Amino acid sequence: MKFQRASLREVQRYLNDIARSFIKKSGADSIAIYTCDVKTKLLYFLTSVGNDIYLKNAKILRLGRDIPVPTTSKRFPLLLKPGGKYKLFSNIPGRILIIPVVFNGDTIGILMVQFLNRKLNAEQISKINKESLMLGVCLHSYVILKTMSDEVTGLKMVDDINRIVVTELNPERLYNKMYEQVKTIVRVKNLRIDLYDREKNSLNPVFFIHNGKREDGHPQIIIGNSKILSEIFRRRKVMLSPEYKRLLKKFNRAELSSDMDVASFIALPLMIRDNFLGVLMCWDKYRKNIFTNSAVRFLKLMANQSAIAIYNARLFEQLNRAINDLTLLYQIAYHISSILSIDTLLKTAVDLIDSALGNLITTILIPDEKNEKLEIKAITKNVKIKPEFESVLLYRGIVGEAMKTKRLIYVADVEKDEKYVPAIDGIKSEIAIPLISGTKVLGVIDFQSNIKARFDLMTIDLLDDIAHRIATFLENAILYEKIEKSYTETIKALVLAMEVKDSYTRGHSERVTELAMKLAERIGIADGRKRLLYWAGLLHDIGKIGISEAILNKPGALDEFEFSEIKRHPVEGARMLEQIEGLKEVVPIIKHHHENFDGTGYPDGLKENEIPLESRILAVCDVYDALTTIRSYRKPFSSEGAMDIIESFSGNRLDLDIVKEFLKMMGRKKIIRGF
């Protein structure tokens, strides 16, 4: 047979045939054939032929410990008799002849030949030794082919890993592929991949296989808390079973509660140049010496290539995260930049943060008017705050500390922080960031999690950027509300001056405005238009300033001239306000709030949708307040009576749809005309 063209299986079959022939010629009862790892001096069972199967039960042996080391230089056999010092052979009947197979001065294999009843002299041993030469040649061929086969398998594995490096950027799929590749090198059911967290000086188990099954939820291990991991991290070299077991003996067992006391073990550092990424560990609880030189070599190659893949995957993950972070910052700026209501701005910001980050509780707190307490202005939906903590003293708790010191406060474990205020159940970590604009602290944005040490540096940087953006737009909203408040007070003073002339309508404008705003909210008018409606409600009768007090307070019915004077007030009001830049958009609403839906109103006889929506809303609310308050010429109607009249006006003087919503808002119970 030409071995150079034979397959590994064919050589092994031929080896068995030669072994059977050898038994017949030598008179032996059985033979066991082992290959030998030159560096580790481990013997691996290959095959056996004969009646006694005991020899093949020992799958892995160590030269010098389990069997004596033959004199390899002269390829001289050793004869072991029953009752010798080697426990492995103490119970084997008969005699065992150990014949080394030597190539280039190295023992590449061992033949163990058993003779149950036959005694051997030197001449017979020499003859048997010569007869074993063919077995040695065949075993040598097998070893060469096995080495080549392992090389091919290893190179294919390395090629597979290279393809993973190029194509696989999903960490979870990458870890699974790494496990599959390890199994092609050595059959293991236990594997873990831990990645190094530089901030916490810990190893985080990102992938854990135990007895062939995936397990999750294993905690991070601080490197200093495990002597084994400390040694791996310090040396950054492959660690095998002997070194592992030596460390187990050296260190106190109490320190090794998270380490693994196993039969076979290997730890491979995952390195990029001098950068330690983590460690890949494999182990077997029962089988010894499973990590051969060849296996270790290929596992090291795989670990090196996998480190590149992990590095690329982490870079890709960080890039995606950076893109998502920038997107969130843009969305926050885009959505809140034009919001001038403080409450709406803060609630919108919290909603955007929650939808993007999730698993966090976000709270924004603003000092009260007396600057004594921090009040919650916006918080993650469906979060229950303990009633006693709905507001906190200005400098109390972690948020108070951030407010006081004007700096970010991060508490990785709130149970260990005496400043922590337990306003929400189940919180483990918290970060509070002051909302600073210039030198002024406007409030605090607070993030809480039910996970200890939840916030890494990248997340903290993102949250800090979010706080800066919110602070910028919050300052604009605060400034606007101050201006708006001042503006409102000025307008109310103007309205009051007008109402002084008409004692019967005092408070009318504010009541109409309040009703109009509620109705607008029910109808679903946009915030910008509601703002215009608010100003229009306050100012809708401002034109009466130019009307005679005698006409305004006349106790009886108005004559034609007097009524024509009263009808001037929408136009007069519009003329007055169109000179004010900030109120130009309010002018059409005020001018047309006395138009009738059927076109019979004044001043321009507009009808239906020609009349501004805000004017139609004001018209309904104006009529209701006029009917339910005392006038110089009549007593007030009851609310139900007023609603009856308003309903009778629907479709002619008043917009039918708006009347319908108004009556629902007022809780009308009586059903008339299909309402």
TrEMBL record:
InterPro entries: GAF (IPR003018), GAF-like_dom_sf (IPR029016), HD/PDEase_dom (IPR003607), HD_GYP_dom (IPR037522), HDIG_dom (IPR006675). PROSITE patterns: HD_GYP. It holds the Pfam family GAF. Residues 483-675 form the HD-GYP domain. This is HD domain-containing protein. It comes from candidate division WOR-3 bacterium.
